[in-house]
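User: Predict the complex with calcium ion.
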Amino acid sequence: MATILIVEDEQAIALLIKYNLEKAGYNTIYVSQGNKVLPVVEKENPSLILLDWMLPEISGLELCKIIRNNPERKNTPIIMLTAKGQEEDKIAGLSAGADDYVTKPFSVPELLARIQTNLRRAGNMSENDKKEYVFKDIVLKTKEKKVFRGENYIQLAPTEFRILKMLISSPSQVFSREDLLKEVWGNSVYVEARTVDVHIRRLRKALNEFGPDYIRTIRSTGYSIDDHDIS
Ligand code: CA
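Assistant: Here is the predicted structure with calcium ion placed in the model:
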């Protein structure tokens, strides 16, 4: 669940936003003072920041620049909230590193739509950042959603792709069936743990056509990818 940090000194507006975001299923953190923002950002690592432009101690614009200059917050979407509607202010906000801009008064559906879009974009960005994973001769390209073994293109179904991605993201780490279920199917769907075994079998079949079996079964525990001895 995404956590949204709301930075807004006008309490009525802040509470309205908070109420509607929580109703839409987001966690929220509310900060009214500009000088409290940076410690909260560091501690809570919000998924997205709604940042009011006009704050008493430090402007939203200054805060935006500071947050953006921290490499760890490079991908945290920032939406500026402001009463200013002028084009030059918008440009200033965006060049300070804001991702988007919402002018007050705004409608709640509009704000929710902007939040959703920015979260989705950020999710895709961090995925692209990792671009590819390599283990031995196996290469998984996240952006293209393709897997190669040496020169050979391996066609995988989406589920097998996600399982391989999880295994290859951390070689030698043993993932339980529950870990894999949670990652691949999420919490919302009920899937039997044995289903994982079926997909692992398919994944092995596809990969092992072109090389040795690097997927290791750890009895009654789970799976990992590593260079174990094949007996
Ligand atoms: Ca304000």
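Residues 9-10, 52, 54-55 surround calcium ion (CB under 6 Å).
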